[in-house]
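Pasting as-is:
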Amino acid sequence: MIYLTGDTHRTVNIEKLKPSHFKIQKKLTKEDYLIICGDFGGVWDKSKISQQCIEFHNTRNYTTLFVDGNHENFDLLNSYPVTKWKGGKVHQVAEHVYHLMRGQVFDIDGLKFFTMGGGISVDKEFRMPGRTWWPQEDLSCEEIEEAIKNLDQHDWKVDYILTHTASNRMMKECFGFQKEESRINEFFDMIQMRLEYKWWFFGHFHEDEVYEAQRCTCLFNQIMRLDQLNTSILFEDSEF
């Protein structure tokens, strides 16, 4: 099974993943996956809190996957060796915790996932470069080239898109406001028009909502099971 949720911010929003809330995990195995749509935050520093956070994810019954958000320590995250997993590049943070790198296409349980983390910190002027904010939060030209190369290899057809933020178009149509505008949002505008996909999942906006017309779901506190994707519900109450 594949489950998805939104930002965890190291331990700030991790309560939703505890067995008292995410009850079905007692029945899961390491062959099941929980995907966090950015702002994982567990790879923040080398403190005891960060180590305990990673250990928390690593010891769940399932395997934890995440795309990066804008609130990540990219210097530390990118220090992990790059390896291949399920057809794409990953940073293996722990035995059962994987960072799904940008511009990759993964084959997970027979489904194709295009991943592109990143986003813009609208509060970066109040943060400290290299300590609480990193410029790598936005896309580089090399990451865009990597994404296009990989999508070319898959004929621009995937099942699902996993990101942290959204396209300019989705922000305007779904939220009615422009939270940010950068290279990554412009790239997503192109992806939204050109890539053939079933559904798009993202976090970042701290809300739980399904946008049927835009074929996307914004996730934060709620957890949804992928094979129960429904435009009217985010999860089955009986399972959690």
